[in-house]
Amino acid sequence: MFNHIQNNDFASIVQGRRSVRHYDENFKISKEELNEMISEASLAPSSANMQPWRVVVVDTPEGKEKLRPLVRFNTVQNDTSSAMLLIFGDTESYLYAEEIYNQAVEKGKMPAEVRDRQLGTILSMYPTLPKELKIEVAKIDSSLFAMQLMLVAHAHGYDTNPMAGFEVDQVAKAFDLDEERYAPVMIISIGKAKEEGHESVRLSSDKITFWR
After folding, report:
1. Residues 28, 31, 33, CA angle at the centre, nearest 5°?
2. Residue 67 region, left (φ>0) first, then alpha (ψ -120 to 50), else beta?
3. What is the dihedral of CA 138, 1, 39, 178, to 10 degrees?
4. Residues 29, 103: contact at Cβ < 8 Å?
5. From residue 81, how far is each of 116, 161, 172 by CA, in Å?
6. CA angle 48, 51, 185 (to 5 degrees)
7. This prediction's pTM
8. What is the DSSP string of 31-72?
9. pLDDT (tens digit, 9 = 90+) per residue, 65-101?
10. Is the Cβ–Cβ distance between 64 and 86 less than 8 Å?
11. DSSP 8-state class, residue 23
């Protein structure tokens, strides 16, 4: 992401992003570049660095056919995009805590005593949290990843559209994920726009900010 942003003004990336619904159906983004964008988006922050975002990349005709009845109001994006990115929040992301923190120590990013203290807190607290709180934390963190992914995609020259209009109660099972563990967050379509999305307006900062 950062290499791309060096050659582009960040403000123009943010302001230039459009929600696109109709893509060039003949254009495909390579698996390698999709992996690169997902890796770049994974630099997003998360609670205790647990990185709970999980992505199912649906880019085959068979996968899109399976997804189509679950996105009844967004079939154009499904049918024409290069890929549909299903974003889930992993409510058991703490299972990767030791791997994450051990790597941090090995790479000289964290002292071993800090790792041990952090792991002690995480592994004693996270597993005992109420399920509703686990889902909320996973969704908040995964939403940060999703927004960063859309900005990364734009920096790579692609268009996206975030969607909440899908069968939330069916999508995990349809793609062989544990429904109890993985919480659906959103679906992002990605590709090359065939029709430009409309510009939208935003409320001014004085209407959304409260100074105290």
Report:
1. 85
2. alpha
3. 30
4. no
5. 45, 10, 20
6. 120
7. 0.90
8. HHHHHHHHHHHTTS--GGG---EEEEEE-SHHHHHHHGGG-T
9. 999 999 999 999 999 999 999 999 999 999 999 999 9
10. no
11. E
